[in-house]
UniProtKB/TrEMBL annotation:
This is Serine/threonine protein phosphatase PrpC. InterPro entries: PPM-type-like_dom_sf (IPR036457), PPM-type_phosphatase-like_dom (IPR001932), Ptase_RsbX (IPR039248). The lineage of its organism: Bacteria, Pseudomonadati, Pseudomonadota, Betaproteobacteria, Burkholderiales. Residues 17-207 form the PPM-type phosphatase domain. Gene3D superfamilies: PPM-type phosphatase domain. Pfam families: SpoIIE. SMART domains: PP2C_SIG, PP2Cc.
Length: 211
């Protein structure tokens, strides 16, 4: 598990994040993956977040997830629709994947998702589910890939996870320990929302105000 990181230093929003991946078989690679590429690691929250579920599980799912990570990492600044086109081409030779992407751009949150990944925008007013389109990245995209825009502000959380976790998870309150250490929210979700026999992956992102 990676330690959460804190970025500060420019006008706008700050980001702290943590993630947790769990393969169903301890001796197998995990077919789920998450990625985060910030425009400037030391300044603010602007950047790209990804959650990836290589279809099925085991080495072939893990390979699809790694190809997706490499493809996103090569040009994370590109528009979400272009990233999905690149991903669909790159994953054609693999088993394919479900992928959800979030772009943080100032106080705008852009979302596009294809396949069965889950993205929750947790605000003071409650949980907002960002809906993905049906399809398999690498198996022909929906046309068009739909991008939606949402306001983002300090105090929001973003929860990105695969279908190894149940998106009906209830989060009635924010525990102080989650605010102190987002990794504890990853652990909570893994313990309380694990669903079925599948790999599971979750990344939590805490949006704050830059000092
Ligand atoms: Mn899955």
């Amino acid at each position: 598990m990676a330690a959460p990181t804190l970025s500060t230093g420019s006008p706008g929003l700050s980001i702290r994040r943590a993630h947790l991946l769990q393969a169903i078989e301890a001796d197998q690679p995990c077919g789920d993956a998450v990625g985060c590429w910030l425009a400037d690691e030391s300044h603010g929250a602007d950047g790209l977040l990804a959650v990836i579920d290589g279809l099925g599980h085991g080495p072939e799912a893990a390979q699809a997830a790694q190809v997706a990570l490499q493809t996103l990492g090569a040009a994370p600044e590109r528009p979400l629709s272009e990233l999905f086109a690149r991903l669909d081409r790159a994953l054609f030779a693999t088993r394919g994947a479900a992928i959800g992407l979030l772009r943080i751009d100032g106080q705008r949150l852009l979302h596009a998702g294809v396949g069965n990944t889950r993205l929750l925008h947790w605000r003071a007013q409650g949980l907002v589910r960002l809906v993905s389109q049906n399809g398999i990245v690498g198996g022909g995209l929906p046309s068009p890939v739909v991008e939606t825009e949402h306001p983002l502000q300090a105090g929001d959380w973003l929860l990105l996870f695969t279908d190894g976790l149940d998106e009906r998870v209830r989060l009635p309150l924010r525990l102080p320990e989650w605010q102190r250490d987002p990794a504890t929210l990853c652990q909570h979700l893994m313990q309380h929302a694990r669903a079925g026999r599948d790999d599971a992956g979750v990344m939590v992102v805490q949006i704050g105000a830059l000092a």
